[in-house]
Amino acid sequence: MEKHICQLLIDGQTVAGEGAPFEVINPADESVIGEGQQASTGQLDKAVDAARKAFANWRETSESARCTLMHTIADRLETHADELARIIVLEQGKPLVVAKGELQGAVAWTRYNADVKIPVKVFEDNEQKRIEGHRKPLGVVASITPWNWPLMIAIWHIMPALRTGNTVVCKPSGLTPLNTLRLVEIINEVLPAGVVNMVTGEREIGEAISRHKGIDKVIFTGSTPTGQNIMANAASNLKRLTLELGGNDAGIVLPDADIDAIAEAIFNTAFVNMGQTCAALKRLYVHEDLYEALCDKLAELAQAQRVGDGLVEGTTFGPVQNAQQFKLIVDLVEDAKARGGRVLSGGARVFDKGYFYPPTIVADVSNGVRLVDEEQFGPVLPVIRYRDIDEALAMANDCSFGLGGSVWSGDPDAAKSVATRLECGTVWINNHAEVLPHAPFGGCKLSGVGVEFGVEGLLEYTQLQVISMPK
Ligand code: NAD
């Protein structure tokens, strides 16, 4: 198979990196599908300069012109959807149908951001004076993205930045950079040079971004330790930050739930993208009356999956994206087994090549076992038995993360009163992991700072300017 070359895109031009070489691996067969060189810090400076130069004009572009250009980008994404989805499968591993869903999400977010209105707030308006709050762009926004939903998360970062008049330097994960390069190339066919740039690299270039005096904001999606490092480095010029970090979302199944009605949704939201989703359901607390029956149903659904290469028709479950994440999953499941965990499906790698781990349900574990306490970010779900709701809530909230949570019940009012007691940014009832362009999403505790999506998410790319006018 032909190898993709991963370059940088600075000021409308693709250029080779000047730093260390790297390879892109297909997680389904461990073959090398791409190669490139990381950006040097000098190249990062050039990308920031290009974005700064482009900002002068882009910020003056009218709202309607920006809206039209963003819809044109969405049209091009639709035209290139098959090509982009295929690249995502090759480097990320997810089944093709899921990658196509990622493209649909990318288009929906682009169009939402194109159309959303930036409000002018009136704080006072009387015969003497009027005080208005206007939203101004920040300048150069840096986007740093992870490897799980690489294209959609890049869109989540880039589109609100553009809509609010900022210019962008993005840095994808070195594990999945190819789709983002293609995306930035397509965006550059539509926008003026320098408005969206891309550099390659990992920790070193990420730290240079966080420290860079020419960057006004970092929007970051990734792990909590990296987010903490970014926050420390960003202090030098008080960069604005939105940090979407790790999660260990709990779901609580109340005793009145109809397990036939909810089992499939629980399975799908726990194993979406092979469990490699920030807001996937990662710990399931089930009332003892339903425990065995629900465990059996989840195991049945897990065993029905067809594990394989995401490009092969009929595959419903792909590989874990990388060797390090794969090893973490193996370690957590082995540790849970040693601590009395009962494996109801999966529980060991499949195939000799590729990072394949089947969907794994582990019963008879509880808080205090690593698989429950840590973010597994992979295809394994621990199921924990509880007796009363206070006990379930105490276990669910005994966690340093606070991204999402869910309550599963036949009684929406009862579910809502439990929902309000969960310590997290979003609670779904009889659902989990659903993110939408118009509903703000973000975490509390170690899951992050700020929100994305909706008007609230958009405003994080702006500076409030208050204008006080006498009449
Ligand atoms: P990661 O933190 O290892 O890497 C994310 C990105 O940060 C990559 O582009 C990486 O190159 C870069 N990076 C690494 N070190 C850096 C540094 N010191 N400074 C700046 N950038 C640096 O995360 P990952 O393993 O790619 O992604 C998995 C994690 O992301 C999980 O914890 C998951 O929960 C989280 N995540 C959160 C959300 C959310 O919306 N809250 C969404 C997706 C993923």
The CATH superfamily name of the largest domain is Aldehyde Dehydrogenase, Chain A, domain 1
- Judged by helices, strands and strand pairing, the structural class is alpha/beta
Q: Count of helices? A: 15
Cα(first) to Cα(last) distance is: 70 Å
State the helicity in percent bands.
25-40%
Give a list of the ligands. nicotinamide-adenine-dinucleotide
The top-level CATH class of the largest domain is: Alpha Beta
Biggest sheet overview: 7 strands, mixed
Major sheet: arrangement of strands: 15-16-17-14-13-19-20
CATH topology of the largest domain: Aldehyde Dehydrogenase, Chain A, domain 1
Strand content: 15-25%
Q: Compute the number of structural domains.
A: 2
Average the pLDDT over all residues and give the rounded result.
Answer: 98
Strand segment count? 23
CATH architecture of the largest domain: 3-Layer(aba) Sandwich
Task: List low-confidence stretches.
Answer: none
Shape: globular
Task: Report the C-alpha radius of gyration, rounded.
Answer: 23 Å
